[in-house]
Amino acid sequence: MFQIRKATESDTPIIFDLIKKLAVYEKMEDEVITSVEELKENIFTHKFSKVLIAEEDEKPVGFALYFYNFSTFVGKPGLYLEDLFVEPDCRGKGYGKKLFAELAKIAKEENCGRMEWSVLDWNTPAIKFYESLGAKPMDEWTVFRLDRKGIADLAN
After folding, report:
1. Which of 113, 117, 150, 151 could form a disulfide with 81 if both were Cys (CB 3.0 to 4.6 A apart)?
2. Is 68 an active-site residue?
């Protein structure tokens, strides 16, 4: 039995565990510097993001973490998917597609003008999956980032 539900504060350790598993898959485990406590504060107290939990037989097998941005050109909010992860042994069952469909329902209910996310250029299975959903790559755009140190340097 498969279900998708909104995460609650008590799910924070599960979310943290799934984030670490995603980081291993993306070969970025050294970049996970957050904690359960920090996630709890920022997701559930400050409400900076929202999380869906995917469960198979009441066992967490995936998640989607998203937040809203705003498009000045469209004049509407957008749903930005920060992370989506399904346990490797549960892939191929349609769970990722069901998570995306749930996100699309949320985006439609919230009158979002679009949904966006990033994908690592080497992640061919994910790219093919996204294309199968009708998503289009934004090849003319380049993602830029300031990390914590960069932000501090610029702010000073």
Report:
1. 117
2. no
